[in-house]
Inverse folding.
């Protein structure tokens, strides 16, 4: 009897822990007609654009900005997930990918995608959903030329 009671309590604790883990994960936003559905609520949400945020080099600056956005009620933020270069820039300059004309090299380092990771982590911490553009179509900023 004691073993059965112990096993039942262990199962309940495990189930509660799993439920908390799932509830604390970020949810995926969806489009519902002309509105967004965030956390099961479909409506118009205010948002803003901060294409430059992944190019900040200080995590505390990113957290400060995300905190201000969250406190002002912003739930959606559009950022750039690209910053392509043709030649490797000097140290400390943020870039995500270099393209020599024949091959691409992804920069996963501290001055590369780790900066984008910092923005994503901070957004999740502050309850902000991100719209990340991964491709640039403006050729004046390293993007693909229109045909």
């Amino acid at each position: 009897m004691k073993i059965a009671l112990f096993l039942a309590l262990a199962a309940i604790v495990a189930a509660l822990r799993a439920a908390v883990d799932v509830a604390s994960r970020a949810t995926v936003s969806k489009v519902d007609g002309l509105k967004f559905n965030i956390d099961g609520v479909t409506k118009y949400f205010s948002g803003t654009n901060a294409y430059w945020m992944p190019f900040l080099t200080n995590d505390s600056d990113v957290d400060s900005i995300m905190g201000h956005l969250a406190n002002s009620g912003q739930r959606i933020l559009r950022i750039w997930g690209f910053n392509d270069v043709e030649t490797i820039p000097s140290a400390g300059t943020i870039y995500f990918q270099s393209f020599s004309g024949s091959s691409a090299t992804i920069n996963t380092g501290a001055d590369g995608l780790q900066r984008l990771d910092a923005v994503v982590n901070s957004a999740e911490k502050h309850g902000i959903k991100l719209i990340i553009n991964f491709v640039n179509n403006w050729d004046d900023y390293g993007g693909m030329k229109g045909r």
